[in-house]
Amino acid sequence: MIQFLLNDTPIAVQECSPSLTMLDWLRTKKGKIGSKEGCATGDCGACTILVGEEHIDANGQLSWHYKTINGCLLLLGNANAKHIVTIEAVTTGLYPTLSDLHPVQRALVECHGSQCGFCTPGIIMSMLAVYINHQTYPGKKAIIHALGGNLCRCTGYRPILLAAEKAYSYERSYEPYSAMAANFKATLFADLDDIPFLKNGPRKFYLPQTAQQLVELKTRYPHAHLVAGGTDFAIELSQNMLLPDIIISLCQVQELSQLTDNNGELQIGAALPYSQFVELFYRYYPESKELFERLGSSQVRNSGTLGGSLGNASPIGDPAPLLIALNATMELLSSAGSRTINVADYFVDYKKTLIKSDEVISKVTIPKRPESLKLACHKISKRFEDDISTVCLVVAVEHAQNIITQARCAMGGMAAIPKRAKCVEQLLLSQPLHVSHFIDAARAISDDFSPMSDVRSSANYRLTVSKNLMQRIGIEFCQQVAPINSSNNIAITRISHASL
Ligand SMILES: Cc1cc2nc3c(=O)[nH]c(=O)nc-3n(C[C@H](O)[C@H](O)[C@H](O)COP(=O)(O)OP(=O)(O)OC[C@H]3O[C@@H](n4cnc5c(N)ncnc54)[C@H](O)[C@@H]3O)c2cc1C
Ligand code: FES
Ligand code: FES
């Protein structure tokens, strides 16, 4: 069985469809219809809920941390041992007055931040997460970041942003959530199953807690579907009507949730959500903010994982070009042991990879940053927030005495797999760090890639934008080495469609 706390009510479930999402369970089994379903694909945020998880700090102190998650992407089984807070718990009482409302609700009313109200529960939950996690107003940028996954189709965002600030002008509300959760943990979790599970006839959902349990299950059920954050997998369920018999969740496997910094070499557990490792990543590779800060929304980054991104093997996943350019490796684990491969070699063809049916991605290792490394990450998408890439380009060069000694360039959205631009790399290698070589390299992108046209853009656009980005990277890199009034100050012409 799985156990979790729903608002202030302990829940234990055993008989249930393994592929049921939290949103469907809340609405159809619990009558909690405050969380709305707008899209069922993680795009609108109307289903946003809070998920509380226990954290242990360096001094061994336990505390509960709350983050936003899309209820439509969270599989019910993945709620095990967590505290689920829904909109119904934000204000209690049947007919609350304005001053009974939680400050974030009261502010939204007073700033006229809701019209039809469909998006409002999700917006309130995102505002609530900010309010719980920041004792003082964190600024407009942080609010926009936190609300990036919440769409409102009628009110407009100005009153909503104002409300997020105004919430801090009232007397601070007492947040009862961690106290509820601490009590729940003490009383109920004494008798958790070794491997918590859900079942519905022959269909099963397993939540192994250790790598040993995980590989044993994967050997017993080689065709079982793995799930980590579920941000890709839940869409397979809702859009492609996938009905798996056996699901094995990775999200509570301790070994897959570790984050290690070995003197600058980072080891990131495959099941660790983005929001739990990006701060450390930025310390060594601040340039990667361009990709990670724009990967989905807060809700998606709070669930999604590197293992899920590589496991999904999408040609437009943002982490792969970065990992390839940084020469990262990945560990594949099975009951026979583990093997390590380069992320660059992992992708074989569209959605085909080197992983075997009994293997699981267990961690990703990013080498220590070389001293002379210059890194540039660019993502082109139709919207800035919460949108998948049209083109993703990452360039990493090392240099000595102004000569390029290593060049790694990887792109997403340009082929059936994320892959290196070997002709581009060849043209950069051993050349002086000068803009003109990046212009030459930009032209070679057509030798490396023949992108396709799809709903996101035409093939021509993909080539044009990636060539212009390569020129821009050249200017940026060379400005950092020598100011623009030196010999790097040459005329740059944007490559147009006509000159392709
Ligand atoms: C609204 C929305 C916006 C998004 N925006 C972006 C974006 O901007 N950029 C981007 O790159 N992605 C984006 N994504 C895609 C997704 O969030 C990422 O690919 C994420 O990293 C997937 O991780 P997950 O843990 O949720 O994967 P899951 O959904 O749990 O799993 C995905 C696949 O990988 C397999 N898998 C999971 N873990 C492992 C493992 N350890 N070993 C082997 N196989 C495994 C699963 O079986 C499944 O087939 C978006 C998704 C949504 C819903
Ligand atoms: S229903 Fe739209 S994000 Fe979940
Ligand atoms: S108030 Fe109608 S969608 Fe936001």
UniProtKB/TrEMBL annotation:
It comes from the Bacteria. Residues 198-371 form the FAD-binding PCMH-type domain. It is an enzyme of class 1 (oxidoreductase). Gene3D superfamilies: 3.10.20.30, 3.30.465.10, [2Fe-2S]-binding domain, CO dehydrogenase flavoprotein, C-terminal domain, Uridine Diphospho-n-acetylenolpyruvylglucosamine Reductase, domain 2. Keywords: FAD, Flavoprotein, Iron, Metal-binding, Oxidoreductase, Ubiquinone. SUPFAM superfamilies: 2Fe-2S ferredoxin-like, CO dehydrogenase flavoprotein C-terminal domain-like, CO dehydrogenase ISP C-domain like, FAD-binding/transporter-associated domain-like. Its EC number is 1.17.1.4. GO terms for molecular function: 2 iron, 2 sulfur cluster binding; FAD binding; iron ion binding; xanthine dehydrogenase activity. SMART domains: CO_deh_flav_C. This is Xanthine dehydrogenase small subunit. It comes from Pseudoalteromonas prydzensis. The gene is xdhA.
